[in-house]
Amino acid sequence: MSFNQRGQLVVEYVLLLSMAAIVAAIVVSKLGSRNPDEPGAIIKGWSAIIKSVGDDKADSCFNPNCR
Question: Residue 56: left (phi > 0), alpha (psi -120 to 50), or beta?
């Protein structure tokens, strides 16, 4: 392997690594966004879980016809 081929390999590796980091940053910013107007998917899901636990539906289901 000549010096030019090793240099090209390093450049390609760095470019691929950079692209992977950019894509990861975009995905994380969209999924984990804490913007109150447009929360990310993870934040929406977690908020729904917290609200469901806070509603405490188990306490309102003591009668036998509860579904």
Answer: left
Distance, in Å, from the CA atom of 13 to the CA atom of 24, rounded to the nearest integer, reads 16
Place of tokens 């036998």: 64
- pLDDT tens digit sequence for 11-36: 999 999 999 999 999 999 888 888 88
pTM of the model: 0.57
The amino acid at residue 59 is D
Number of H helices, E strands in the chain: 2, 0
Q: Give CA torsion, residues 41, 43, 44, 47, to 10 deg.
A: 160
